Amino acid sequence: MFSLSIKSSIDQAHATRSLAYNVTQMTQTMLKSNSRSHLDDCVELLDQSLDQLSKIHMKSTSEDDIQTWLSAAITHQTFCLDGFENEKLSKEKATLDANLRNNIQHISNSLALHKSLVTEQANTLKGKGSRRLMSDDFPTWLSIKERKLLQTPVEELETSAKVALDGTGTHKTISEALAFVSLAGTGGGRKVIHVAAGTYSESSLGFSVKQSNVMLVGDGKGRTVITGSKSASGGSNTFSSASFAASGDGFIARDISFVNSAGRPWKTYSRTVVMQSYLDGIISAAGWYPWSGSSSLNTLYYGEYSNTGPGASTSGRVKWGGYHPSMSVAEASKFTVANLISGNSWLPSTGVIFDAGL
Hints:
Layout: H1 2-31, H2 38-58, H3 63-82, H4 91-117, H5 120-124, H6 144-151, E1 161-163, H7 174-184, E2 191-195, E3 198-201, E4 206-207, E5 214-217, E6 224-227, E7 245-246, E8 252-254, E9 257-258, E10 271-275, E11 301-305, E12 323-324, H8 329-333, H9 337-340
Parallel strand pairs: 1-2, 2-5, 3-6, 4-7, 5-8, 6-9, 10-11, 11-12
């Protein structure tokens, strides 16, 4: 039944993607403009949803990954739907809006069905993850050839392109190098781009779900820096404001610093937990600010646990139904590295120092 549910979700998503593409083309013709719009973002988001749903349908994978991909597919289509929130809809856009709502509900049903099918074995492995590490601390899904790529000095790597601001490489921008390796193609193999030391701030930097196995290699943390300055206040929407967006499978980056603006909790079921942190006196006594009006204050989940510092007192905090000023150990444990992101299964191979639990 679960497999049939996923297949149905894929079929519906394909139909919705085709409709979104047709509406995009029609809108561009009517407006006589080729500038990127929310509908273009919508097509890309639906491509990503289809990719995630197809992985579930075609691959034997872990319970954690299935849940992640289903949740991501819902998130992508919800974001697409949000773009029509304050817009007067044409007949075609109204149909697209209805299709998206139906898709989201259908995938949500698949997610609920999946949760009901989780076995006792999955419960036993909870917190341990399913990506086992090899004896040399690399995940099993990383091939021997690609492990060597992570260990080989940059000057010894066989690269597809080199980016350098001073013109000593094959390209001066990362965007140009990504476009080049996309057109050149390597038969599905790994495309390695060396990004020399420097700070790179480029518009719409990244690649789509159709471009896979890209690897960026910098000259070291803090030496090769990718950043950006796009924001909603500057005319960009949230989807297109990332400093770097890697949607294709198999992306690897090493020896590079990515600088991005901080995310924020939003919408009806937003979740944010501040735990075991030092809070300075700059923090307002109320602690939290509503997203929009009071409609979501009982459905959100904002929590605090074991914080210290002059701003850590919760006595003057907001009195919302969804706010939890004194989380229990059991509640806080759900948001640890081990439980929230299955960190024990993949973080050790990165060399990052972390605390798995409270």
